[in-house]
Amino acid sequence: MTTLSAYSALAERFTRLYRYHHLHAIASWDQATMMPAKGNEARAAALAELQVLIHRTLTEPGLAGQIAAAEDEPLDDMERANLREIRRSWEQANLLPEALVEAKALAGSRCEHAWRTQRPANDWPGFLANFREVVRLSREEAQRLAEATGVRPYDALMDKFEPGMSSAEIERVFEEVKGWLPGLIRQVRERQEGETVLAPAGPFAVERQRALGLDVMKLLGFDFDGGRLDVSVHPFCGGVAEDVRITTRYREDDFVQSLMGIVHETGHARYEQGLPRDWLSQPVGQARSMGIHESQSLSFEMQLGRSPAFLELIAPLVRRHLGEQEAFSSANLARLYTRVQPGFIRVDADELTYPAHIILRFEIERALIEGEIEAEDIPALWDEKMQAYLGVDTRGNFRDGCLQDIHWTDGSFGYFPSYTLGAMYAAQYFAALRRQQPDLDAQIAAGNLAPVFDWLDRHIWSQGSRWETGELVERATGEALNPAYFRAHLERRYLG
Amino acid sequence: MTTLSAYSALAERFTRLYRYHHLHAIASWDQATMMPAKGNEARAAALAELQVLIHRTLTEPGLAGQIAAAEDEPLDDMERANLREIRRSWEQANLLPEALVEAKALAGSRCEHAWRTQRPANDWPGFLANFREVVRLSREEAQRLAEATGVRPYDALMDKFEPGMSSAEIERVFEEVKGWLPGLIRQVRERQEGETVLAPAGPFAVERQRALGLDVMKLLGFDFDGGRLDVSVHPFCGGVAEDVRITTRYREDDFVQSLMGIVHETGHARYEQGLPRDWLSQPVGQARSMGIHESQSLSFEMQLGRSPAFLELIAPLVRRHLGEQEAFSSANLARLYTRVQPGFIRVDADELTYPAHIILRFEIERALIEGEIEAEDIPALWDEKMQAYLGVDTRGNFRDGCLQDIHWTDGSFGYFPSYTLGAMYAAQYFAALRRQQPDLDAQIAAGNLAPVFDWLDRHIWSQGSRWETGELVERATGEALNPAYFRAHLERRYLG
C-alpha cells in the first residue's frame, strides 16, 4: 500500500468537495427555475444539510497538518497555486462554527423563497420578518471572521467574493466616482435630450424573444452541449463549469432588457466554459473572484454588447425574430442601449447610472453589517439615497426599491461592489485589447468576435485561479486596477 | 446536555440520509430531463460520490449497537415499524463494500447515459461494451448478498425492490400465467378481429398533447404545487414525495401511448404525494416496495385508466385539446385502449400481452445474474422468447428489443417482476373496492373519482411502510396476494 502525499490527499478531498458543490449548484438552479412551491421546505433542508457536509469536510481536524505538510512537498507552479487556494478555503471555513453555517443557509433559503412572492406583492413587512434573522446571522458571521482576521466586519464578508479587496479601497474609488459621475450623467442627459429614440412596439412573444436570445448566445460562442438557457425571477448564471445554466426573465412589452441580460449572463457562462478543464475539480481551476466574474459579464454586456459595432451585428437577428420595425435599425438600437435614464431597477439600469445603484447598496449594506443601522431603517435610507444620487422617488415602492435584488435575501452581503469592480476591470481589459487590435470595432461589426474571445480566454478564462486577482489583472493589462479606464470609456462612448 | 435515545439518534441519521436521497433524486431527474450531454461525466461523478456518502452513512461502525439498543427502548407502533425498516436498510448496505457500490454507480451511470444515444442508433455492440461491466458488478453484488442472506443470487437483488418475495414464488405465479395467457390472448384476438377500431388521425402537436396530459393529471388529483410534468427518453416518476417529477415522451403521430403513460406515472405520483407527511424523512414514511408502487401506477393505468367509464370521462377532454374526430368517441377510445396486439415495446404493450414482456425479462435476467448466460447471449434469447410468447420477430432490431428498457442499463436487475406483481395487486384492490362500491363504474363515468382515491389513500398511500408487503395487502383486501383476481379482471374486461 502506497501512502498518498499530503498534497494528493488534499486534492482528493477537494475533488470530493467539488462534487458536493456540483449537487448544490444543480439543486439550487432547480430551486430557482423548476421547483414547485411545496418542494421548498425539503429542498432548503437538503441544501442546508449539504452545506453542513461541505463545512465538515473543510474542517476535519487533520487538515491543518495536511496543508502544512503539503506546503513542504515539492510541487509545480499550478499545484503551488492550488495549495494557496486550498488554504484560503480551509481558513474561511474554519473560522465559522457549523451551527452558524447551517442556520444561515436555512434562514437564507427561507427568506429567498418567500421573497419570490413578497417582492411582487410589495410586502416589505412580510420580508422583514424573515430578513431580520438573515441580518442577525450575517452580522455574527462578519463579527467572527473580522475578529479572526483583523479586518472590519464588512470587509470580512466582502473577502468571500473579492479576496484581498478592502472596503477602504472601495470607498476611495466610489468617493472618486461620486465626484464625477453626477456631472457626467447630467451632461449626457442634456446631450441626449435632443436625440430621437424610437421605442420598439410590442408585444414581443416570449417564444420569439427566447429564439432571439438563443441566436445571440450562439453568436457569443455559448456551448449548448454544456449548458442551457431558462427562466427565473432573478436572472443568474449557475450550474457547474461542465454544465452552465443561465437564466433570464421575459416581459412581453419589452425585449431590450431581457436580451442584454442574456448577453450579460453569457459572459459569465463563457468564463465558466473556458476555465482550465484539467483543473476543474480543484480550487485553482475555478473562477478567480466575483469581481473578475462580473468583469466577464460586463465585458460582454457593456464593452461588447452595447457597442455600436455589436448592435450593428445583431440588428438583423432582432429583425429576423421580432419583425421589421424602424426602431430595429442598428443606429436606433445603439441609442436605446446607451440611453441614460435614472430608474428604479439596478439590473435594468443603463451603464452610466449603474454605479450609483452599487454605491447606494454598498453604503447601506456596510452600515447594516456594522450595526450602524437596522434592517427596518433600509427603506428610508434607500429613498434618501435614490433621491440624492439619481433624483428618483422610491417611497412606498419596495418592490422596485430595496426588495428588487436577490443578494440580501440569502445574506450575500459584500457582493455588490464586485459589479462595479467588474465594470472597471472590463474597461481596462478592452483598453488593452484595443491597443493590440486598433481595428477592433470593424472586426466586431463584421462578425469576427474571435479577437475578443481569444483575449479573454488567454488572459482570464484559461487562468482560473492561478494568480491572485491583482496579479491576474496586471498580467492581462500591464497594470493594477486603474479606474481611469472606466471613466475614459464612459466619456468616449457617451460624449465622444 | 441530554443524551439522545438510540432511537432518536437513528432517526436523526435517517433524516440526514433522506436529505442526501433528495439531492440524488433531483440531480438524477435533471440528468434525464434537462442536462446537456457534456454535463454527464461530472454529474455521474457527483452522483456516485453521493452514493458513497449514503453508503458510508449507513455503514458507520457504531450503528449495529445503536440499532440493537433502540430495539430495547420503549417505542410506539410507528417507531417500532420504522426501526424494522431502519434495520432493513442497514443490513442491505452493510453487506456490500463501498468500492463495489461506487463502481456500480459509476458503471451504471455511464452505461445509461451512452444508452440514450445507442438505443436510437440500434447500437448493441456499443452498448455491450459498457453493459458487460454493469453485469459483472451486479453479479458480484448478487453473490455477496446471496452468501450473506442464504437466498439465490437473483432473489437477493429482487429483495431490494420487493422485500420478502422469492423468485420461486414468482416462477410459480408466472408458470401459471404462462398456462392460461397464450390461450386468452388468442381468444381475445379472434374476438377483436371483427371489431372496427378507428385510428386517430394525427399529427398531434406536442403542446396540445401536453395540455391534454396536464388536464388528465388534474382530473387524477395530481398536486401541481408539489410536482411537475416533463419529457424524458424513458418515462419515469422521480423527484421526492414533496416534489414529484413525472415524465412522458411524445410522438406527433400517436397520442394514445403518451396519454396513458401520463396516467400511469400519475398513479406513482399520487402514492408519493399521499405518503404520511409527518413520517416522510423516515424509512417508515416511504413507499412500501416497487411492486406496491407499480400497483398504484397500474391501478391508475389499467384498473381505472383503461376502463370504459374513465374513457367516457376523458373523451371530451381529448376532443377539446385534439379536435373533433370520430375516433375520439368514448366507445372507440375504449376499443383503442383494450386492443390486444402483440408488439415490440413493453411500455406500449396492451394490458393482456404485458405480462409476457415481464416473464421474458424475468427469465433472461435471472439466467444472466446466476451465470447461466452471458450478456452477449441476450439478443438471441430475446428473439426466441418474443417469438415463443408473442409470435413477434425481433431479430436485428435491438432498439425495439433488448435495448428498449432503462432498467438493465444501470443494473436494476430484479425490478421487472414488480410490474406484474403490481398488476396483480391492483386487480385485487379493485375487486375489494368493487365489493364496497358496487356502482363504482357509474361513479367514475360521472366524474366522481373520490371512491378510488379514498380507498387507495386509506389502504395504501397513508400507510407508507408501516406494514410488511404481505400484511399491507391483506389488511387492504382481506387476503394475501391472489393472482386469480388478475385473471378474473382480464377475462371480465376482454371476454365479458
UniProtKB/TrEMBL annotation, chains A, B:
Manner of cofactor binding, per the entry note: Binds 1 zinc ion per subunit.
PANTHER family: CARBOXYPEPTIDASE 1, METAL-DEPENDENT CARBOXYPEPTIDASE
Catalytically driven reaction(s): Release of a C-terminal amino acid with broad specificity, except for -Pro
Needed co-factor(s): Zn(2+)
EC numbers, comma separated: 3.4.17.19
CDD domains: M32_Taq
Name under which the protein is recorded: Metal-dependent carboxypeptidase
Positions that bind Zn(2+): 264, 268, 294
Protein family according to the UniProt entry: Belongs to the peptidase M32 family.
Its job: Broad specificity carboxypetidase that releases amino acids sequentially from the C-terminus, including neutral, aromatic, polar and basic residues.
Catalytic residues of the enzyme: 265
Any one GO biological process: proteolysis
Keywords: Carboxypeptidase, Hydrolase, Metal-binding, Metalloprotease, Protease, Zinc
Taxonomic path: Bacteria, Pseudomonadati, Pseudomonadota, Betaproteobacteria, Neisseriales
InterPro entries: Peptidase_M32_Taq
Gene Ontology molecular function terms on file: metallocarboxypeptidase activity; zinc ion binding
